[in-house]
C-alpha cells in the first residue's frame, strides 16, 4: 500500500524526534483569547493553516511562535491542543508602525499590484526590522538542534535571515501567502534589497503560484548578489530552492459540514428568508480593497438596470467580514461600499424586496457553509489575491454537484479552477455578463463544471500542501 504523502512525511519527521520537531513562526498564534467568567481561555482559530499544520506539530511535539492578537501582558508559553504556543508581544506603537503601517499600508498594497497607493515611511521600516528581530529571537529560543523552522507571510520576511544568524544549522522554510509582485512594482520599495536578503536566509521559499516564484527569483537576481535559475539560487555560499505550493483547504471538513442535516436545514432557511424564489448570487470576503467588492456590486447594479424583472429573479447577498478597521483605506472602503449598497437598494428596491442583502460581520464556519449551500452563484472577484480560499470552500461545500463559481482571473485559485466562469474583475460589464451566464447556465453544464472543480480541490487539499512543502524542506 502506498502511504498518503502526509503520513509519509510524518513518518519521516517522527522517525528521529531529535531531528524533526517543527517550529512554525507566523504573525498570529493559531488561537483566540476569550473570557469565561473571570478566566481567560483560548480556542483554536478556524482556518486551513491551523488544521493543516496541527498534525505535524502534534506528532513532532512542535511549537508555534506568534502574536496572541491582543494588547496587554504577554502570556508565558503555554500548551494548547498538544502544541507549545510561544507568544510574542506587540506594543501599541508596534501595532501602529509594524502591523497597520509597514505590513498593511506598505507591503499589502504593493504586493497586491498597488491597487492602492503603497505608503513608504522610514519610521515604519525600523519597527518592522525590530519586530522581525523579536520573532527571530523567540523562534531561536524555541528551536533545538535538528528542528525545522517554517516562517509564514509578508509580516515576517526578514525572519529567515535573522534566524539564520542565530541558528545557522536550522533548515528554514518560508511561505508567502499573498502574491509576490512583478519586479517592476517591487522595485519601488526603498528596502527591496533588505527584504530579499531576509527571504534568502531560508533554504526553501514557497509561493502560491509559479508567477510569484518567478517574480521573486528575478527580483533576487536583480537586487542582491544571488545568482542562479528560477528554481535554485546561490546566495552567500548557500543554496535556496524556490517553488510554487498553491495552498488549499481541508476539503473533507467542508464537504462533511455541508452534508450535515443542521447545515442543510439552515441553508434552506436562508433561501426562504432571503430569496423567496429568487436565485442567490453570494459574495463573502474580508472587507478589503483587494477583493473587488465595489466593482462586483456595480456589476450587479448593471444587471438590475438591464432587465426589467431582474429584481424578482435574483438577489445579491454580500457578507463583508470586518478587517483592519484602523487602516484608513479600509474605513473609507467600508463607507464606499455601504453607500453603494444603499444607492442600489434605494434605486431598485420595492417594499418587501431588496436587491442587495448586506451583512457586515463574521460568520461561524457552519453558517458560512450554509450560505455556500444556499447560493446559486458564488462571486469571487478580487482585483488581486494570493490564492482565495473562499472559492475552494464553495466548491467543497457543493455536495449536490450544482452551483456556479464566478472567479477573478487575478486570484491565484484561477490557475487551478479553470472550470469556473473566469472574469476580469475590473471589467464591470464583463462581470455583469458573467453573472447572467452563471444564472442561466443549464444544470447539466453546472454539474459537469462543478465535478471537475471538486476533483481538483479534493485532489489538492491543504494536507497535501503542507506535506509537499515540509517534504521538500525536510529532505
Ligand atoms: O492573507 C493574508 C492574511 O494575513 C491571512 O493570513 C489572514 O487571515 C488575513 O490576511 C487577515 O490578516 P490580519 O492578521 O491582518 O487580520
Which molecules are bound besides the chains?
6-O-phosphono-beta-D-fructofuranose
Distance from first to last alpha carbon: 22 Å
How much helix is in the residues? 40-55%
Total number of strands: 18
* Coarse shape: globular
Which descriptors would you attach to this protein?
alpha/beta; 18 strands; 6-stranded parallel sheet; Rossmann fold
Description:
- This protein starts with a helix and ends with a helix.
- The protein is built from 18 helices and 18 strands.
- The longest helix is centred in the N-terminal third of the chain and has 21 residues, at 122-142.
- The protein folds into 2 domains: 5-248 and 462-473, Rossmann fold; 253-459, Glycogen Phosphorylase B (Rossmann fold, 3-Layer(aba) Sandwich).
- α9 (251-259) crosses α15 (389-397).
- It is an alpha/beta fold and 475 residues long.
- Strands 5-6-4-1-7-8-9-12-11-10 form a 10-stranded mixed sheet, with helices on both faces. The chain has a 6-stranded parallel sheet with strand order 15-14-13-16-17-18, with helices on both faces. Strands 2-3 form a two-stranded antiparallel sheet.
- The site of 6-O-phosphono-beta-D-fructofuranose has 7 residues, from β1.
Task: Give a quick rundown of the structure.
By secondary structure, the protein is α/β, with parallel strands linked by helices. The protein contains 18 helices and 18 strands. Helices cover 47% and strands 19% of the residues.
Amino acid at each position: 500500500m502506498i502511504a498518503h504523502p502526509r503520513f509519509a512525511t510524518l513518518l519521516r519527521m517522527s522517525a528521529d524526534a531529535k531531528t524533526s520537531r517543527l517550529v512554525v513562526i507566523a504573525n498570529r498564534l493559531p488561537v483566540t483569547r476569550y473570557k469565561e467568567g473571570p478566566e481567560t481561555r483560548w480556542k483554536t482559530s478556524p482556518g486551513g493553516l491551523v488544521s493543516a499544520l496541527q498534525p505535524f506539530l502534534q506528532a513532532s511535539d512542535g511549537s508555534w511562535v506568534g502574536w496572541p492578537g491582543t494588547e496587554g501582558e504577554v502570556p508565558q508559553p503555554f500548551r494548547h491542543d498538544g502544541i507549545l504556543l510561544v507568544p510574542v508581544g506587540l506594543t501599541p506603537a508596534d501595532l501602529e508602525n509594524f502591523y497597520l503601517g509597514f505590513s498593511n499600508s506598505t507591503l499589502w498594497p504593493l504586493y497586491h499590484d498597488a491597487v492602492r497607493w503603497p505608503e513608504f515611511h522610514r519610521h515604519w521600516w525600523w519597527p518592522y526590522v525590530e519586530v522581525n528581530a523579536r520573532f527571530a529571537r523567540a523562534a531561536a529560543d524555541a528551536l533545538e538542534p535538528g528542528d525545522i523552522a517554517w516562517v509564514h507571510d509578508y509580516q515576517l520576511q526578514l525572519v529567515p535571515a535573522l534566524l539564520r544568524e542565530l541558528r545557522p544549522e536550522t533548515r528554514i522554510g518560508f511561505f508567502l501567502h499573498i502574491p509576490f509582485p512583478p519586479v517592476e512594482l517591487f522595485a519601488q520599495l526603498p528596502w527591496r534589497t533588505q527584504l530579499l536578503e531576509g527571504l534568502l536566509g531560508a533554504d526553501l521559499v514557497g509561493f502560491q503560484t509559479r508567477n510569484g516564484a518567478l517574480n521573486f527569483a528575478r527580483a533576487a537576481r536583480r537586487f542582491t548578489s544571488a545568482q542562479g535559475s528560477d528554481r535554485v539560487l546561490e546566495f552567500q555560499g548557500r543554496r535556496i530552492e524556490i517553488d510554487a505550493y498553491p495552498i488549499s483547504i481541508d476539503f473533507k471538513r467542508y464537504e462533511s459540514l455541508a452534508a450535515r442535516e443542521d447545515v442543510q436545514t439552515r441553508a434552506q432557511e436562508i433561501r426562504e428568508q432571503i430569496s423567496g424564489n429568487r436565485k442567490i448570487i453570494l459574495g463573502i470576503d474580508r472587507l478589503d480593497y483587494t477583493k473587488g467588492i465595489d466593482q462586483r456590486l456595480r456589476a450587479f447594479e448593471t444587471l438590475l438596470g438591464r432587465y426589467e424583472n431582474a429584481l424578482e429573479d435574483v438577489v445579491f447577498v454580500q457578507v463583508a467580514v470586518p478587517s483592519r478597521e484602523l487602516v484608513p483605506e479600509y474605513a473609507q472602503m467600508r463607507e464606499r461600499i455601504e453607500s453603494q449598497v444603499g444607492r442600489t437598494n434605494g434605486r431598485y428596491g420595492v417594499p418587501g424586496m431588496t436587491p442587495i442583502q448586506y451583512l457586515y460581520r463574521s460568520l461561524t464556519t457552519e453558517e458560512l457553509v450554509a450560505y455556500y449551500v444556499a447560493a446559486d452563484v458564488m462571486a469571487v472577484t478580487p482585483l488581486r489575491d494570493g490564492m482565495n480560499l473562499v472559492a475552494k470552500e464553495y466548491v467543497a461545500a457543493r455536495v449536490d454537484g450544482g452551483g456556479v463559481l464566478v472567479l477573478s482571473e487575478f486570484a491565484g485559485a484561477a490557475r487551478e479552477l479553470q472550470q469556473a466562469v473566469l472574469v476580469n474583475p475590473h471589467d464591470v460589464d464583463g462581470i455583469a455578463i458573467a453573472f447572467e451566464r452563471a444564472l442561466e447556465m443549464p444544470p447539466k453544464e453546472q454539474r459537469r463544471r462543478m465535478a471537475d472543480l471538486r476533483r481538483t480541490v479534493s485532489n489538492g487539499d491543504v494536507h497535501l500542501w503542507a506535506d509537499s512543502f515540509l517534504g521538500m524542506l525536510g529532505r
